[in-house]
């Protein structure tokens, strides 16, 4: 193509395509080419406006030369592109013809010239007076031309990765939707012209600001940001009187001009829906800064938002929209106009100080109309239809208990006191009736499986219970379902009569029928928790074979070793053992692990690999794009001998995606693959080594079963024969062995024969056999544990599940029964231990005290959970954006992998959803199911905006969301009177809580995932605020110069886990008492973390078990006071400065089990005696560069199990080895030591250079057989 003779449109098209190809090729300076592409697009947008705009009628007397000047500017833009593109083409062709080297200098120089020419053109030809002249004398006028121009400008703004431009882009799109809405509503004449001119002015100014941004070489232009903010506040937001007048004139004309014909709306619903979306955004922006809004006004505004969301969803749902009557369809457009007039008329001051009477009446009328529309929709699509009711079929008695607890709480709350809708006597009657029915269900529980009549009755009772719960919950959120209460009462009476008839017709027998299912009762956990890495595969020969394949002989080229076999054989466990073996660690410079699974993404795989190499940068890598991650991985691995494990690989595509980032330096690097597919690796590496993993022999199965059941003890002779037979029945599958061991551990010995019969009752394939064993394990679980194990189906496969979050979710879901004398979290912990003992759950991470930090399930167990949860109508896992199959009354939905999820459609299909768990950056719509109890918004980042819509979720118990710049929580959070857990992810500034937080009496956990920020309690009038009796866990930020801490702590009498950081104070504390922080009033406190309290003293409660001090400067004398705490079990001193010498006093730390010292910069000498640390089990010393030695007296400690030393002097390493030898001499062969990167500072740089950078010396003592 000859660019010199091309038209304006084709000229830009050719230039952008050519630069795009160059961008994909010239990776060495792709940033400069990317910027050039953007700058050419900016010129294209300006040129578009110049060629399309026409002189206004009132400026027809302007000289002809003005018109010519506009055309000349347009021609100069085109000429600039043509000249510079010809030069760039020439340089590129010269490079291809003559050089073909890696030297891109000439091309890079030409790209720079091109960019400088564009910058100069912006400065000389498209400057402020030029823009003002164009706006004064010309316009596009045609609505479609204005919309095209907005699209062109928006394309430029979207490419600028800066929040101010993102916001400006959103505002431009709002104006575009406003124009389309006005056109659809039939607006013509001066009102439409005013809106078009206004929009043109905003768009051309936005384009000018974008050009200024790109021409700024520093990449940061504070003045441009200020101009953007001014443009939005003065020309787009309706706060400015002139802007408000323009908008309201258009909206008034929209109401008057439209006819009753709805055909236009039916054909073009999208503009109306888009416009209402932006109305919701504008309302949210208006409410966001309101910190003292009266609750009634805030609730009215939130209901407007919720109503607009509802109407937007109706418009976008083709089938539901068709079902609406003619009047309803016409009313939608009118409601949009009325809502916009109200919203555009409001200001922050009006909302906070009280609405004008006229506005208040308009708001009341609008809400009434929306409520009527929702009632009409309910008739079209009844939300509580019981026909074909698909309620969950597990733990029904637990669900009944949950309903009864809620009824008791409801009868006591202010929500129904004096209510005509909910008279207390009616609620109490329903409660008493269900208590009777529950006691009856307990009586028939054991017989129902053998009696169809009893089973049918049981199902009807549960159906009525679920219906009653729905009706009550819908009524509480104000959606007009109170008339269903009488239906519920009638249903209950019918069920009670039937129960009496059944009672009279059957004879209850005291003892139950014998059978294996009757003997499985819950038992306290007696087994030590097995970790995920425990050696459960007794195949020493297999370990040696794989290890030798990786480390001995073979090609110097990058090679692949595969472990293949059916699920349940232990492929991952075997790979993990090899990966962590000392010989493999010493052989490779870099080790990395990636769990691929299904589905997979390139980005996720790269993050996993880089994160396993540099764990401290994991969060940083999550934010990097895929291309840069691939480049980074190649750089990290280059010239290093590395081992990469790809666990659970399913197809060659995943390998092909990664292969380009895996360098082959002929140094013996290896890839270890685990897969179910026998020949997978041969598809991409025909000469690779494939290792089929064999099954266990009968003897190995028997040994593994004994190990799981009896530990180091022998199997009792009375059980030997049956247990041996059971081991043989497991077909050599390790997973089946450990699952069966979990069954037997909770089964009476006289029923083991029944287990044998269950395992051998039918002939199935091996993979089906594993599933059958899982079904058997599941059927023998206590009812309370069934929903707990199935809940793992909601989490991502092969991912660790944080245990605290799991417990909080279980509790919020109502799975955890209240037990006398125990906290719910402790009961949940017992549940988890039970599942671990049954080998259904694996411990993947442990805390310093040995408790579980994270867990996971085997991929087969996960597959079973997903399948079983769907069968039982317990949980629906979305697999695609239109995956809406399932019963209408589905209660739990999770999305683990679907992008661009259309939640609004899901809400219409599943209106009664109680739990919504998201793991991706989903676009919610954003309309939430009103009955939600659990809402986890995953990685959806709200930035500085708090989603106000959640405050309408009256039943919410668990809320987790991600923000970055939220600095206060709106007062409307007080609406969430049932909230138990509020988890704030990733926020990077402290967050002020409202006074209403103390009204949430159910609150148990207020936590932030960022360890360096916390919640700020309002201290004004705190004395008269309610006490938060149930608060268990808190991330707190305080100002220690005031008495705020003591005021706050008196409101938290039962706190167990506290992270407390200091807020920067404007005043320096002047009195000594200001330097003492008192925590000893917290009699239940067990765990306390204190970051950034330099030179402060503390008073701790005697019951404290765990203490972490970070970035503090307490002297060792203060640490000695801590040593007097009688119950302290864990002490962590991190990034601490206490002085050079720690001389311990007699009797310090009598019950300490774990001591961690990290980055104690001045710490040189450590003096201790034999009566210090009498119960110490684990010592961790990291980054203590001055420390000379670990006290030798630790060698006398009989309880010591582990010493871990990293980045310390060589003398520290020697002292630790000496302690191990002393322990061995004393007969203690349990002690293990781990030494890493311990080299004296005086070592030569040459020695450091040749030392293995990843070498870890692991010296376990020999264990007795």
UniProtKB/TrEMBL annotation:
It is a peripheral membrane protein. It is found in: Cytoplasm; Membrane. Confers resistance to late blight (Phytophthora infestans) races carrying the avirulence gene Avr1. Resistance proteins guard the plant against pathogens that contain an appropriate avirulence protein via an indirect interaction with this avirulence protein. That triggers a defense system including the hypersensitive response, which restricts the pathogen growth. Belongs to the disease resistance NB-LRR family. Residues 795-864 form the Disease resistance protein winged helix domain. It comes from Coffea arabica. GO terms for molecular function: ADP binding; ATP binding. Residues 142-373 form the Late blight resistance protein R1A-like N-terminal domain. This is Late blight resistance protein homolog R1A-3. It comes from the Eukaryota. Residues 1241-1265 are annotated as: Disordered. CDD domains: RX-CC_like. GO terms for cellular component: cytoplasm; membrane. Residues 913-1231 form the Disease resistance R13L4/SHOC-2-like LRR domain. SUPFAM superfamilies: L domain-like, P-loop containing nucleoside triphosphate hydrolases. Residues 540-714 form the NB-ARC domain. The keyword Cell inner membrane does not apply. The gene is LOC113700727.
């Amino acid at each position: 193509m000859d660019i010199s003779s091309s038209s304006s449109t084709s000229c830009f098209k050719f230039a952008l395509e050519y630069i795009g190809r160059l961008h994909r090729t010239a990776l060495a300076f792709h940033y400069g080419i990317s910027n050039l592409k953007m700058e050419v697009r900016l010129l294209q947008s300006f040129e578009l406006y110049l060629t399309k705009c026409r002189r206004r009628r009132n400026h027809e007397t302007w000289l002809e030369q003005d018109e010519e000047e506009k055309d000349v500017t347009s021609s100069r833009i085109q000429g600039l592109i043509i000249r510079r593109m010809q030069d760039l083409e020439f340089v590129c062709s010269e490079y291809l013809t003559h050089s073909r080297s890696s030297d891109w200098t000439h091309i890079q120089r030409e790209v720079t010239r091109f960019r400088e020419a564009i910058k100069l053109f912006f400065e000389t030809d498209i400057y402020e007076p030029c823009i003002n002249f164009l706006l004064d004398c010309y316009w596009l006028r045609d609505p479609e031309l204005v919309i095209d121009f907005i699209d062109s400008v928006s394309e430029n703004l979207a490419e600028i990765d800066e929040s101010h431009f993102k916001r400006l882009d959103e505002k431009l799109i709002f104006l575009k939707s406003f124009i389309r809405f006005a056109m659809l509503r039939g607006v013509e004449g001066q009102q439409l012209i005013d809106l078009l001119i206004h929009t043109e002015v905003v768009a051309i100014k936005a384009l000018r600001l974008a050009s200024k941004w790109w021409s700024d070489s520093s990449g940061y232009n504070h003045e441009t940001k200020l101009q953007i903010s001014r443009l939005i506040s003065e020309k787009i937001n309706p706060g400015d009187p002139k802007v408000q007048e323009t908008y309201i004139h258009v909206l008034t004309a929209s109401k008057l001009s439209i006819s009753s014909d709805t055909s236009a709306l039916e054909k073009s619903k999208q503009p109306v829906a888009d416009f209402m979306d932006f109305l919701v955004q504008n309302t949210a922006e208006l409410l966001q800064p309101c910190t003292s809004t009266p609750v009634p006004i805030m609730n009215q505004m939130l209901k407007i938002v919720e109503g607009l969301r509802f109407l937007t969803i109706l418009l976008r749902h083709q089938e539901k929209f068709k079902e609406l009557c003619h009047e309803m369809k016409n009313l939608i457009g009118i409601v949009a106009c009325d809502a916009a007039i109200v919203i555009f008329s409001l200001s922050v001051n009006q909302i906070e100080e009280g609405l004008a009477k006229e506005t208040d009446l308009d708001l009341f009328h609008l809400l009434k109309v929306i409520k009527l529309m929702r009632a009409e929709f309910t008739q079209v699509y009844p939300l509580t239809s019981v026909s074909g009711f698909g309620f969950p079929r597990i733990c029904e008695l637990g669900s009944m208990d949950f309903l009864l607890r809620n009824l008791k709480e409801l009868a006591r709350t202010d929500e129904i006191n004096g209510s005509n809708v909910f008279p207390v006597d009616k609620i109490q009657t329903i409660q008493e009736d269900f208590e009777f029915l529950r006691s009856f269900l307990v009586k028939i529980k054991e017989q129902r499986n053998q009696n169809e009549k009893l089973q049918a009755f049981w199902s009807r009772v549960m159906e009525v219970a679920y219906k009653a719960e729905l009706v009550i919950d819908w009524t509480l959120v104000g959606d007009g379902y109170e008339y269903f209460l009488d239906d519920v009462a009638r249903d209950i009476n019918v069920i009670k009569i039937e129960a009496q008839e059944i009672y009279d017709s059957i004879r209850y027998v005291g003892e139950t029928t014998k059978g294996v299912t009757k003997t499985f009762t819950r038992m306290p956990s007696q087994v030590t928790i097995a970790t995920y890495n425990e050696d459960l595969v007794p195949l020493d020969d297999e370990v040696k074979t794989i290890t030798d394949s990786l480390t001995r002989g073979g090609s110097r080229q990058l090679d692949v070793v595969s472990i293949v076999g059916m699920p349940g054989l232990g492929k991952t466990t075997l790979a993990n053992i090899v990966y962590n073996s000392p010989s493999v660690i010493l052989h490779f410079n870099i080790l990395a692990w990636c769990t691929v699974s299904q589905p997979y993404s390139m980005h996720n795989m790269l993050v996993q690999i880089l994160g396993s190499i540099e764990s401290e940068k994991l969060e940083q890598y999550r934010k990097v794009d895929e291309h840069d991650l691939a480049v980074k991985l190649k750089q990290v691995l280059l010239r290093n001998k590395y081992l990469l494990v790809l666990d659970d690989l399913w197809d060659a595509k995943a390998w092909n995606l990664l292969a380009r980032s895996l360098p082959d330096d002929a140094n013996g690097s290896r890839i270890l693959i685990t897969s179910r597919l026998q020949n997978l690796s041969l598809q991409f590496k025909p000469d690779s080594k494939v290792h089929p993993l064999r099954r266990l022999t009968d003897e190995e199965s028997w040994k593994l079963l004994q190990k799981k059941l009896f530990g180091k003890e022998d199997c009792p002779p009375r059980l030997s024969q049956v247990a041996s037979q059971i081991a043989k029945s497991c077909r050599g599958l390790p997973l089946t062995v450990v699952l069966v061991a979990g069954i037997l551990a909770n089964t009476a010995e006289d029923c083991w024969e029944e287990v044998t019969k269950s395992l051998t009752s039918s002939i199935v394939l091996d993979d089906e056999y594993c599933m059958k064993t899982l079904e058997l394990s599941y059927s023998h679980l206590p009812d309370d544990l069934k929903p707990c194990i199935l809940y793992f189906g909601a989490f991502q496969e092969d991912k660790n599940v944080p245990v605290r979050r799991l417990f909080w979710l279980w509790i919020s879901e109502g799975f955890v029964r209240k037990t006398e004398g125990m906290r719910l979290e402790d009961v949940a912990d017992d549940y988890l231990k039970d599942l671990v003992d049954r080998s259904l759950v694996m411990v993947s991470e442990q805390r310093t005290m040995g408790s579980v930090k994270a867990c996971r399930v085997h991929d087969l167990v996960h597959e079973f959970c997903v399948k079983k949860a769907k069968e039982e109508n317990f949980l629906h896992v979305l697999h695609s954006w239109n995956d809406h199959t399932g019963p209408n009354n589905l209660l739990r939905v999770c999305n683990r992998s679907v992008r661009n999820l259309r939640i609004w459609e899901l809400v219409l299909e599943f209106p009664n959803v109680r739990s919504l768990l998201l793991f991706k950056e989903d676009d919610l719509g954003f309309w939430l199911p009103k009955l939600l109890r659990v809402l986890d918004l995953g990685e959806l980042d709200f930035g500085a905006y708090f989603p106000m819509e959640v405050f309408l979720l009256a039943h919410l118990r668990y809320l987790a969301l991600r923000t970055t710049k939220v600095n206060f929580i709106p007062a409307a959070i007080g609406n969430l009177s049932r909230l138990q857990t509020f988890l704030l992810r990733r926020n990077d500034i402290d967050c002020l809580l409202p006074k209403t937080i103390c009204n949430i009496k159910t609150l148990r956990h207020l936590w932030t995932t960022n360890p360096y920020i916390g919640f700020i309690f309002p201290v004004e009038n705190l004395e008269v605020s309610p006490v938060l009796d149930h608060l268990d866990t808190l991330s707190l930020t305080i100002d220690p110069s005031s008495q705020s801490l003591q005021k706050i702590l008196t409101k938290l009498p039962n706190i167990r886990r506290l992270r407390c950081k200091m807020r920067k104070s404007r005043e320096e504390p002047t009195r000594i008492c200001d330097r003492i922080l008192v925590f000893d009033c917290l009699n239940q406190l067990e765990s306390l973390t204190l970051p950034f309290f330099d030179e402060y003293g503390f008073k701790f409660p005697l019951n404290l078990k765990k203490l972490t001090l970070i970035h503090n400067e307490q002297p060792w004398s203060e640490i000695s006071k801590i040593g007097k705490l009688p119950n302290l079990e864990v002490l962590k001193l991190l990034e601490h400065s206490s002085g050079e010498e720690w001389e311990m006093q007699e009797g310090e730390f009598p019950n300490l089990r774990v001591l961690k010292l990290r980055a104690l910069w001045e710490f040189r000498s450590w003096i201790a005696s034999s009566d210090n640390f009498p119960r110490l089990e684990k010592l961790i010393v990291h980054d203590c560069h001055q420390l000379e030695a670990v006290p030798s007296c630790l060698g006398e400690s009989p309880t010591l199990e582990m010493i871990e030393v990293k980045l310390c002097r060589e003398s520290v390493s020697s002292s630790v080895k000496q302690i191990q030898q002393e322990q061995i001499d004393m007969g203690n062969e349990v002690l293990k030591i781990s030494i890493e990167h311990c080299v004296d500072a005086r070592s030569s740089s040459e020695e450091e250079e040749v030392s293995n950078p990843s070498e870890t010396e692991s010296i376990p003592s020999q264990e007795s057989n």
